[in-house]
Specification:
The chain contains eleven helices and 13 strands. With 459 residues, it is α+β, with helices and mostly antiparallel strands. The protein has three domains: 116 residues, Chitinase A, domain 3 (Roll); 104 residues, Roll (Chitinase A, domain 3); 138 residues, Alpha Horseshoe (Serine Threonine Protein Phosphatase 5, Tetratricopeptide repeat). Strands 1, 2, 3, 4, 5, 6 and 7 form a seven-stranded antiparallel beta sheet that branches. Strand 3 and strand 4 form a beta hairpin. The chain is flat, with a radius of gyration of 40 Å. It starts with a strand and ends in an 18-residue tail after the last helix.
Length: 459
Amino acid sequence: MAIDISPNKDGGVQKEIIKEGIGDETPSPGSNVIVHYTGTLMDGTKFDSSKDRNEPFQFELKKGSVIKAWDIGVATMKKGEVALLTCAPEYAYGKNGSPPKIPSNATLKFEIEMIDWKGEDLSPEKNGSIERYQIVQGKDYITPQEGALVNVHLTGIHNGKVFEDRDVQFSLGEGEDCGVIEGVEKALESFKSGEKSRLKIKSKYAYKNVGKPEFDIPPNATVEYTVELKSFEKAVEPWSLNSHQQIEQAKVYKEKGTNYFKMNKYNLAIKMYKKVTSFLKYEDGFEADLKTERNNLILSAHLNLALSYLKIEQNVEAKDACNEALKLSPQNEKALFRRGQAYLALASPEIAIKDFQEVLKIEPKNTAAIKQIGVCNSLIKRQLAKEKKLYANMFDKFAQEDKQKEEEELRDQPDVMCGALGEWGQEERPGGRDATAFEKENPNILMLNANGTDEFQNM
């Protein structure tokens, strides 16, 4: 028996279950559903069938990629279920139809088989590393962005065992400071206030190849979280503040970055220092002392970024941060020294030494720079010795190859003292004449009577 499942109960979408599905779970909005279907007009004329093509159809549920009746009907189906949807024109192709097969204002029937579904893919790479299955939809349309203060309840599960269950408040992007994994943070950027969802998070965005021994989570493990976003406060935007307020907010980020750095939480420190530069990006509105303070904060942020990047061996990024600092302060001792360290780590001692030498011009008693110059010189000498040995071996190898090639070419040349050229065969004498007495006595001497005459015969 068909039942009306249209939101307004206007009879626009009617569903009749042909085969019951398994379990109680149905796909949530955003899920990637996989179905087979056959579509017919009311007179039984078939206009399309994935079964005839033997190609299941896949689409994102409630994203507007299919007709309204499908988004409504498929959302009610369980795995393995087969159902017949009768769809009024306003829930199908309306007055325009879909020529040539579907006429205007056509009521359609779809027999749909629910094969399977996967959660909504929230991973940055769209590779299924973070899947969302909505339990309770949120309200409004606003979602928290990085920096927003979020209040959430987390329940973490691995192999059916709950390993954490807690309320936590944190600024989005700083979850690491209170033990919130990256996958939960990234997913929360798509949550609406009041939303509750189940997340399936692969190791890349969970506990990676280290695991979490205190939770009995092994390396490279996939975990599940049920996350409820109770509420959130939007992050402060630079445009909403005047120049003085921007300076004060930038100072807050700088202090947070320094605290994270002291706790060896370098990734969090980097996020905070980046916020300083982003907050003070535009010069408009900064004058006199305020402009000087702004420039000093940006310079300090770039220098601290360089140091943080060096700590986690992101040496290219460290070099770039130093370059930004040197644009503001071309003779900055710290920027030159840290750029030298970055070049040294990038195996470029011949470039690094120039930065350390510039440091000594500014501060001749900088013992750290003197020591690093010694390191650079040692590495340069070692590289030269290695290159010399490499080239010597290369030249020896080329010489040996040339010698072998010469010997092979000599072996391939015919021996004029042996074989057909040295032994006078009848066919080799001009005119095919018989050998002379002299030729018989001296078989290995080539006679010059090429014209077949008796010239030179009596030599």
